[in-house]
């Protein structure tokens, strides 16, 4: 349930929501949930723009395994690890899935066509079709088996996985990954022994996870996701998780920000102010800007301040409603209608802007347009009324709302006497404007369907567009009933969402249904289709205008082919349950490899599992109990709250920089309130109360620190100095009170590790280790005297607690420094302050001979003049072609645009002081070149001798031009340049990484020899 642009908007409005993950400061989490499809996409097609990119299945599986390992290692869940792969989606989601897959197939086809037109030679093997990441495909079946293998392998070999219960809900289990996770959380909450202080971490890329996490009403809930960079040049996604910057978005702060957003209601409503109910209504309001199940209301766009409009309207109307709109998951229709009626003022306000343009247009073309518009409006009104007679009562009620709404405005007795001719014109145009919208985009009424879709998110909404707000009337009389249907089988979903271009992902017996002209459902697979931005700005946001699938016709067409399914295909076309796995030391068996050539079998598998039925976690929504936690009474380390420092809040356009650029909308600003008593304390009193003591800084993302210094300054006098010197996260929190900046500044060391000291009685004492880096913080921003809880350290009192049997340790002494060990039963010696450990001593490779003979395997580098002599060119050309060479369009006298192509080999970079190992090396100020660089230059010279010749004659120029290098009518400089670029991009050297010239790097041949010695151990 993605909500485009929501994540960016919410992060800019509430700047403190997220923090960068620092491995030594990660909170302690009980449960880690992974929305797996984000990882699968990340590891399988990291660069969709490169039509030459190819990847093997074993590479994909290995990368996914590695990604899972890193995420597990970062979060270290204590109790539950839940891996959820998207299964068959609800019918409502298939609209969006279908459009997305048609679009991706079309974009891939267009990119391949452009590459071929440019003369590029594409690899012979098939490209990875990302549409195969859909339940029921052969790829997903293979991935499913490999993920089960991975879970069994980790449980059997990795001790950190052995104390955790692991749930694996694969693609065969119906439902989207994030919704299967939320079902599990609701089920756990419904248990009588549920701990309200359970700490949850959910990994996923969809912005709607913020909403889903808030529906849990859990106090300690964080979202883990990769860093998002907006604006600037599009970069290739990073596959390696070690090179990825992760962010934690804290829903504990999101809850408090929502409380601030609607705090004005506390003094306005007559019923109880309940933040949990406010959050439920906040989620409902989020539906109105669209998601994967229902489209956005007309002209309500997040980047055009739709959300502040929704919030402001809610604050205005809620005091009149007598209660909340979303009553524990049940939509109160009378209240919802009143809210939408108030919100519908936006329709007229938006059209009034259009109307001004229409009036200007009328002044230019006369009244002909107006008369035609009025005539069309009257004719369409007549047609619609005839159409209504054939519809059911519910739809007629909603259509009456549209007509009544328009008629009331025009014929109301209160308005008739005072209406001007312009008002009549406005209302006529307004009705025509809306009817044109319905006729061109839908042609039918959609009000009741839209209300049903909001009441039940999984209800199928059969239109591409939503109705106007001003047309949603009389909905309080609707009878909303939702019957839970059965999920599609995997092949049924595949045929429902895939385009004909991806037909090979289906069993052969179904493929003709997508391509044969005689197919009864051929119209569902158009080779070409239109898109409609519908007020959006980016092409990926456009509505894909393809027909909706008729479920009955689809199943009837498939029925004629089902008998042709093979045994293996029938197995793929079924649902299966979720697996619960855990470690059992008494269980031991051999787990077979799903791919023996790539992955070894697990010789001693110690994993047990239990099957969880499909409806085991289904809990009535009314049982989604809310447990309230006082976060101020006990601070759970790593779960920030705004409660520890007194402050006031307000919205202001302050241009806070969250995503590499200043935000354009309003930001929720926090201004710390100075305590008058502390402001009057003397320097000596403050210093004695904090010096040498540990406290918390970086509010609200508190980090423990120790005060090592203290200064008192008039910050008004030293404003620029303090502004530069203050640690960056707190720059925004300096106080400005009565036009004076005054305060005290403390210098603190951060805690970076902990160690334990054991006394003679066997008792363990924790000693905090402090960083040597000292940073300044304003006194008013520190937090003291709070109860902080972290069970990782608070429960360790004895050696038994510190070193329980089977725990992993590392040797810090000699001779086995760095070796891993396993703690044994030490009951007989632990009273003496000792423990028994069995260490794994790795074999040390003998590298003495290699060190003595490394010169034999090292790459030889020569000066540029040596290469120039061998190639028969000047040293200038060697230097120039191994760097950058820019060629512009047209000629120097008549250039065509500013675009310039770089046709240099890019083997050296003077400004950045970088080289390409194996090709270039900088010794002092002189560049040296290898034989590989010489061969590459020779090949280039043979391909484009005229380019070398021209540059040699025009060495004084910085930029060269196509028509100057290849003059004459028979020459095509643009094609020549494109041929060179294609050759350069296809050459292996284009993928090599650079390194700093200051680094000492082992040559590849030496690394291979080291690997050979290591393998001998």
TrEMBL record:
Provide this UniProt record's keywords sorted from A to Z.
Cytoplasm, Exonuclease, Hydrolase, Nuclease, RNA-binding
Task: Please list the residue ranges annotated as the Xrn1 helical domain.
Answer: 272-577
Gene3D superfamilies for the chain: 1.25.40.1050, 2.170.260.40, 3.40.50.12390
A single Pfam family it belongs to is: XRN_M
| Gene Ontology molecular functions | 5'-3' RNA exonuclease activity; RNA binding
Where does the record place the Exoribonuclease Xrn1 D2/D3 domain?
Answer: 800-1016
The record places domain 5'-3' exoribonuclease 1 D1 at 634-753
What's any GO biological process attached to this entry? nuclear-transcribed mRNA catabolic process
Cellular location of this protein? Answer: Cytoplasm
Q: Where is the Xrn1 N-terminal domain?
A: 1-227
One GO cellular component term noted in the UniProt record for this chain: cytoplasm
Matches recorded under CDD domains: PIN_XRN1-2-like
Similarity section: Belongs to the 5'-3' exonuclease family.
Name assigned to this protein: 5'-3' exoribonuclease 1
Taxonomic source organism: Monodon monoceros
